Amino acid sequence: MHFEILVEDQSGKKALNILVPKIIGDDHTFNVHPYKGIGRIPKNLVASKDASKRILLDQLPRLLRGYGKSFAKFPVDYVAAVFLVCDLDDKCLKTFRRELFAILNSCNPKPETRFCIAIEEGEAWFLGDIPAIKSAYPKAKETLLNGYENDSICGTWECLADAVYNGGAAALSSKGWQAVGMEKSQWAEKISPYMDVANNTSPSFIYFREKLLELVETNA
Question: Tell me: the pLDDT tens digits for 144-164?
Answer without folding.
Answer: 999 999 999 899 999 999 999
